[in-house]
Amino acid sequence: MSELHEVAPEPVQMAVPGIPPSLPSSGTTHPYLMKSIDFLRTTQQYSVIPFSAFSALHVASVVVGPALFGPEVGNDMISVGRELYHVPLVELGILVSACVHVVSGIAVNLLRQYYNYVKYGKAKRKKNQNRTKLETAMKITRSPNDVEVRDIDEGLGGISSIVGAGSRPSITSRFLGLSPLAFSGYVLLVLLGGHVYYERVAPLLVDGDSSMIDMTYIAHGLQQKFWEAFTALNLLVATGCYHMLVGWNRYLRRFSLRARKNTYLTLGVLSALCCASLLRVRNLDVFAAAAHRFDIYLAQ
Description:
The chain is mainly alpha-helical. The protein has a single domain, classed as 3 helical TM bundles of succinate and fumarate reductases (Up-down Bundle). Helices cover 69% and strands 1% of the residues. It is built from twelve helices and two strands; from the N terminus they run ααααααββαααααα. It has a two-stranded antiparallel sheet. A hairpin with an 8-residue loop joins strand 1 and strand 2 (148-149). Helix 2 (31-47) runs antiparallel to helix 5 (88-120) and helix 3 (49-69) packs across helix 5 (88-120). It starts with 25 loop residues before the first helix and ends with a helix.
């Protein structure tokens, strides 16, 4: 008995036939990877604030104002806005804000793919990704408006989620491995790139400034190729509003059923206002000299 003494407990690992040894946690083997993802995610969230402020002002000028009060009011709002966001440093800040948001978002997605590869292995990567995206934690309380869906990869959960049928896994998550928010961001990147080129870059290349750009420029495009311009501009507004509204819901952690309903309502109202704005702007008279200049812009 005198030889017995207390020792510190130590874990014992024993190999069990048929069961592979557990893999080390990727969080401990790759701490810098997790820190990089967290840093890029935070950068992505905060970098978009200046561009969101500009977008809200721009939507008010070209969508809400013309639809409710007429194209002339829209032109006045564009003139006021131009004095604000065409200041060199302000315009540069908006551009940097958008670029940082896009680059950090792409980097986060790539690092997450690599993280899943390291954690699960090549054979199990796709299986575990799909399982993670489909896991939904729900908290049901007395009021149906308090139902929360914590799976941020579902976007708005589909129309079925607001009528009590439950949210559905998004098509983009199942087939592309992208959340609806990320997918809308990539689509918006293409649409917004074309919009910026024809609205800002092309006039700069031709005249050195974009002072001639107002509602008559949009009217000329609608009068020349109505369905192409009408569809592209509506798609730009709908995709941009969806991306910003869902992104802010995610940032503010607003996942309740009430928040989703309000987001759908806001998207519907803005889409309707966009259609009304374009239909009213189409009737503007465009002088021949301005139309000729606009044709040069569009030909760039």
